[in-house]
Design goal:
- The chain is built from 13 helices and six strands.
- The protein has 292 residues and is α/β, with parallel strands linked by helices.
- The protein has two domains: 178 residues, 3-Layer(aba) Sandwich (UDP-N-acetylmuramoyl-L-alanine:D-glutamate ligase); 103 residues, Arc Repressor Mutant, subunit A (Orthogonal Bundle).
């Protein structure tokens, strides 16, 4: 008979980690995943932008519902960001006394972003760790969701009555095969960055607004900014203005066109607007640049 496993954690819309990865891993290994969601994230393969932490009373209600109806003997715990949520989870564990509690200590994202406060880390150590059968420590630089999937695999093997040490060994073997079979989940960031550069090269004379390029590439301005920062350390606006400035410099150096003609050629509404832009970028006016 397939035994249920309760995962108490956050949701990752990319499916690389969180409850989505738990459900996939547990199902692949023949278990039945149940859930209590602690946080809903807004994230891409480049990182997390926002959290919505589910109210503690709702988290506790989810746990009570599953425990009352199915009484899973194995509980796997991932992301907990709020003290009252932690206290609710601890109360439930003490009340229902599952045979095994596995903690996947979610502190940092795969990109190195801090997901919980130092205070929460200390609270987890004091309140939750004493109730755990097994703690999983995230390896630095590991594949996105790797420790998450490992903890889920351990949970399945424990639910099958396998001893903890053997369950860990079998989980490591499973994860090793997953790493060999498939690389980490990758979004379209590299492809999108190159498409953005091509679009800037084509449209820099007519458009300098980030939203124009985001709409052209069918992505949000926020995601485009994430891509450019991760790839080059620059904002989309920095890249647009930098390319435009470079092209203006070439015109000032290689043509006899007047400053006003160059200003209109690059889509500026007036010579004054053009001069203000160029001076902000280079520290001198177009006329001074040309003389220099």
């Amino acid at each position: 008979m397939t035994k249920p496993i309760l995962s108490i954690t956050g949701s990752d819309p990319t499916g690389g980690s969180g409850i989505e990865a738990d459900i996939r891993t547990i199902s692949e290994l023949g278990g039945h995943a149940m859930s209590a969601i602690t946080s809903i994230t807004v994230q891409t393969t480049l990182g997390i932008q926002e959290f919505y932490d589910v109210p503690a009373s709702i988290v506790e209600g989810q746990i009570d519902a599953v425990m009352n109806d199915f009484q899973p003997e194995v509980v796997k715990i991932g992301l907990i960001r709020k003290t009252d949520t932690l206290e609710a989870v601890v109360r439930a564990l003490r009340k229902y006394k599952p045979r095994h509690v596995i903690l996947d200590a979610v502190v940092l994202s795969s990109h190195g972003d801090m997901l919980i406060s130092r205070e929460m880390q200390e609270s987890i150590s004091c309140l939750l760790l004493p109730l755990c059968t097994l703690i999983i420590k995230k390896e630095e630089g590991s594949m996105h969701g790797l420790s998450n999937r490992y903890a889920s695999a351990v949970a399945v093997f424990l639910s099958q009555g396998i001893a903890p040490k053997e369950a860990e060994a079998k989980a490591k073997s499973y994860i090793n095969t997953q790493v060999v079979r498939a690389s980490d989940l990758q979004g379209r960031s590299s492809e999108l960055y190159n498409e953005f550069l091509d679009a800037v090269a084509e449209h820099h004379r007519e458009a300098s607004d980030v939203r124009f390029y985001a709409d052209l590439l069918n992505v949000s301005s926020r995601y485009l900014a994430q891509v450019t920062r991760r790839t080059s350390g620059k904002t989309p606006k920095n890249i647009i203005d930098g390319y435009l400035t470079h092209e203006i410099e070439l015109q000032l150096k290689s043509t006899d066109n007047t400053v006003q003609e160059i200003a209109y050629r690059f889509g500026f509404s007036s010579q004054a607007h053009f001069t203000k832009f160029f001076k902000k970028q280079k520290g001198i006016s177009p006329t001074q640049y040309r003389r220099k």
